[in-house]
Recover the amino acids of this structure.
């Protein structure tokens, strides 16, 4: 089979598209013929050597995708050849075929495309727990979303609106501002503007109820625009490590700092399927709009360059 691989850590140029041995499945696995693969910043970090990778070169990136079942392990129940399945956390997805544990296989319902499933799961499940668990959005809640034009950002905005909240976005360019507005943001402010003052003006000096903080280096500014008794949800550090937080500040302002990691949420097959069903239903009902850019898997290096440049909006897919 063909796969996108690399032997040494480095820039996009280390990626090669070539023939390798296809995977074999265990009794509790299924073999998926991949139709669409999600590209994420974690793939960039792994390619650079910033994240742990198991095994030996050639390494295969990718943890998210969708495809057709071509083979079923002897102990697998309830899945048959020809079924449409997706996954959010299975390694070696940048290939024509992927072995997937049945515990991590998520059925794709009729009316949802492979491309939508591969665009939605990792970032959609992240936005889902952020708005349902880390801070439960209620009608009238005002939420600030960092990196609002990115994959998670656009989904956060839409889910905040679905749940009755008001969504304010932060992003870096006029083009990205339009992308965030196009998915329903009530207001979008650029980082280069005096965004703290603008947010306080928008909230009549009160501040927002919750900040979804994915930049890291902006965490203290996020606290400054959070109302007394509000919450900052820290779930990423794309802009660098956050400073240490003084618990006295939290006490004095009655503010809450909470963290979020998807893998602490997706602990069972039932959890994966239940949350995914709600996401898929929102897609079918037209309540979630997905922005996608597709590249052939053979041009994976070019897709990595686009993602790493931070010029992209929405989701980047690799198509075998």
């Amino acid at each position: 089979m063909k796969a996108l691989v690399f032997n040494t850590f480095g820039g996009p140029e280390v990626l090669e598209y070539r023939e390798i041995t296809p995977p074999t499945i265990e009794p509790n696995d299924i073999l998926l013929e991949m139709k669409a693969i999600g590209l994420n910043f974690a793939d960039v970090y792994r390619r650079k050597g910033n994240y742990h990778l198991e095994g030996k070169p050639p390494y295969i990136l990718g943890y998210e995708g969708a495809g057709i079942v071509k083979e079923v392990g002897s102990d697998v129940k309830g899945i048959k050849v020809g079924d449409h399945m997706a996954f959010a956390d299975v390694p070696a997805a940048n290939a024509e075929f992927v072995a997937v544990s049945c515990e991590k296989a998520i059925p794709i319902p009729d009316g949802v495309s492979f491309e939508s499933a591969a665009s939605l799961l990792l970032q959609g499940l992240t936005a889902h727990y952020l708005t349902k668990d880390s801070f439960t959005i209620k009608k009238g809640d005002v939420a600030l979303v960092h990196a609002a034009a990115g994959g998670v950002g656009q989904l956060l905005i839409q889910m905040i609106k679905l749940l009755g909240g008001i969504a304010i976005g932060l992003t870096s360019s006029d083009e990205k501002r339009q992308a965030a507005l196009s998915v329903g943001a009530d207001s979008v402010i650029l980082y280069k503007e005096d965004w703290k003052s603008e947010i306080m003006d928008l909230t009549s000096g009160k501040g927002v109820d919750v900040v979804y903080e994915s930049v890291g280096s902006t965490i203290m500014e996020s606290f400054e625009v959070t109302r007394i008794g509000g919450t900052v949800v820290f779930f990423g550090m794309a802009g660098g490590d956050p400073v240490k937080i003084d618990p006295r500040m939290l006490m004095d302002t009655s503010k809450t700092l909470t963290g979020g990691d998807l893998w602490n949420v997706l602990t069972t097959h039932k959890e994966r399927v239940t949350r995914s069903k709600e996401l898929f239903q929102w897609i079918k009902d037209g309540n979630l709009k997905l922005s996608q850019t597709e590249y052939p898997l053979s041009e994976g290096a070019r897709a990595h360059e686009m993602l790493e440049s931070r010029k992209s909006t929405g989701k980047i897919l690799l198509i075998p």
Remarks:
- The longest helix spans residues 114-134.
- The chain has two domains: 2-108+290-319, 123-263.
- The chain has a mean pLDDT of 95.
